[in-house]
Amino acid sequence: MDALDRSAVARDLHDFIAPALAGPVGPDEDYFALGLNSLFAIELVVFVEQRFDLEVEVADLDLDHFRTISRLTAFVLAKTAGRAGIPA
User: Fold this and answer.
1) Which candidate, 71, 42, 36, places its Cα nearest to that of 56?
2) What residue stretches are annotated with the Carrier domain (predicted)?
């Protein structure tokens, strides 16, 4: 991605999460309520840190930040605010 873009962040997150659910997931669907577990939550945190070059700190580990693609997109955008872009 050339610049921090909400739709591109959401698409990257969807592309990571959808295979774990064996299908598409809506931006406001709670994928943990759909059956994803705590092991996936750890994988998701690692993906977010690596993909968006950010650090998820202990204070950030509120499940509400990670429960839906919309919430996680907002979290990523907040953590990366002020940066020129994110890695391609």
Assistant:
1) 42
2) 1-80
Place of tokens 């994803």: 36
- Tell whether 85 is covered by a domain: no
The pLDDT tens digits for 65-88 are 999 999 999 999 999 987 655 555
> Would you say residue 86 lies in a domain?
no
- The structure's pTM equals 0.87
Cα-Cα-Cα-Cα torsion 81, 36, 64, 71, nearest 10 degrees, comes to 40
Task: Please state at what angle helix 69-79 crosses helix 6-21, rounded to 10 degrees.
Answer: 140
Q: Quick: pLDDT tens for 39-48.
A: 999 999 999 9
> What is the domain count for the chain?
1
Rg (the chain; Cα; Å): 12
